[in-house]
Amino acid sequence: MATIIGIDKIGFYSPEYYLDLTDLATARQVDPAKYKIGIGQDQMAVLPADQDIVTMAANAAAQILDQADRQQIDLLIFATESGIDQSKAAALYLQELLQINHQARAFEIKEACYGATAGLQIAYDHLAAHPTSQKVLVVGADVARYGIATAGEVTQGAGAVALLITRQPRLLGLQQPTAYYSEEIMDFWRPNYRDTALADGKFSTAQYLRFLDLTWQAYRAKTGTQLTDLTAVLFHIPFTKLGLKGLRQLTTDLAAATKESYFDYFQQATGYNRQVGNLYTGSLYLSLLSLLDQQQLAAGSKIGLYSYGSGAVAEFFTAVVQPNYQQTLQVACHQQQLHQRQRLTVAEYEQFFMQTGLTDDHDFQIKRQSPHADFYFAGQTDQRRIYQRKEPVK
């Protein structure tokens, strides 16, 4: 049997609080249709003070890792643009919380929303180059913050996606080659002195679509793949309307009957994104999880994936659905997470927003606010972050 490298398991975590965007629209004196149709979002995850990128990543990864996985992982990659330290990698906190094998490389990578895809491709190359290596954990965890009553407010969110990469994966086999493109542009950025992002929205949308065309055409040239060879195409989803624009661009020349299938899959693939909001590095993979959880795909189906990170780097690649992949999914767990969240008022959301992004050098303690989370951020002592878990790792 030929060796396949790909995604064996996917874990997902989002905070236990959310804001309904109808409430936000009312508070901002905006027609709700502008948010729910014009932007394509229904709800927005809101981060409580007892969660950050480390705890969200740990809560996501703990869903999928057993003791054997923890011992067999020899590479841990943490992708984020919401870093908590200018020097120490969040991967090291995560390794300790999850009790992952210490005979492992552990580091953090950053390139806006592209980071998790960079981690995924590094994981592929690592397993291909090291026959004795067994498993790689890639996580993407972020908090999307633009500020209260700003243009980007409606596209905020928070959460983490964890990917276990192995040989002979049970979910998706990654295919090579891929196509990628990078160019220094100023469409979105966050200087060190800010805890909210800056963005040129219209310019960023134009670059997202331009990079999509460049990477798709390069992928076609490399592989001979036609759009109709792909069962579905998934996108980086900072908000669902942007991915929809990308799909419209790709399918312009297709007959109406052929287009319909791609748009049906897109709707299913953005179900979770509409409820959670922007995950930055995890957004593409949350969309992938939404599709896998909601749709029965035939083994051998080929899925196209478009990853984009402002600044900017983009990549187009494909993955093949594996036989009986449904047996590995945790659909009930994911749906329960979303169902058990607590709805906030706009005033409560604004209060939560002001609690995050702590930079004070004094000691402080944080009262636990996430009753269902296994891991949480408890505060700071001697300028050292303190993490705790509800129960010992099994």
Gyration radius (Cα, Å) is: 20 Å
Mean pLDDT: 96
Helical region count?
13
**CA-to-CA gap between the ends?**
33 Å
Query: What's the name of the CATH homologous superfamily?
Result: Thiolase/Chalcone synthase
Count of structural domains: 1
Q: State the CATH class.
A: Alpha Beta
InterPro entries: HMG_CoA_synt_C_dom, HMG_CoA_synth_N, HMG_CoA_synthase_prok, Thiolase-like
Keywords: Acyltransferase, Transferase
Protein name: Hydroxymethylglutaryl-CoA synthase
Domain Hydroxymethylglutaryl-coenzyme A synthase N-terminal: 5-166
Topology:
Elements: E1 5-13, E2 17-20, H1 21-27, H2 32-39, E3 43-45, H3 53-62, H4 67-72, E4 73-79, H5 90-98, E5 105-109, H6 115-129, E6 135-144, E7 157-167, E8 172-174, E9 179-182, E10 188-189, E11 198-199, H7 201-223, E12 232-235, H8 240-250, H9 256-269, H10 271-276, H11 283-294, E13 302-309, E14 313-321, H12 331-339, E15 342-343, H13 346-355, E16 364-365, E17 375-381, E18 384-389
Parallel strand pairs: 2-15, 4-5, 4-6, 12-13
Antiparallel strand pairs: 1-7, 1-8, 2-3, 6-7, 8-14, 9-14, 10-11, 13-14, 16-17, 17-18
Helix pairs in contact: 1-2, 3-5, 7-8, 9-11
Folded structure, characterized:
Helix 7 (201-223) packs across helix 8. This protein has 13 helices and 18 strands. The protein has a single domain (5-389), classed as Thiolase/Chalcone synthase (Peroxisomal Thiolase, Chain A, domain 1, 3-Layer(aba) Sandwich), CATH 3.40.47. Helix 5 links the parallel strand 4 and strand 5 (105-109). Strands 1, 4, 5, 6, 7, 8, 9, 12, 13 and 14 form a ten-stranded mixed β-sheet that branches. The chain is of the alpha+beta class and 394 residues long. Helices cover 36% and strands 25% of the residues. The mean pLDDT is 96.
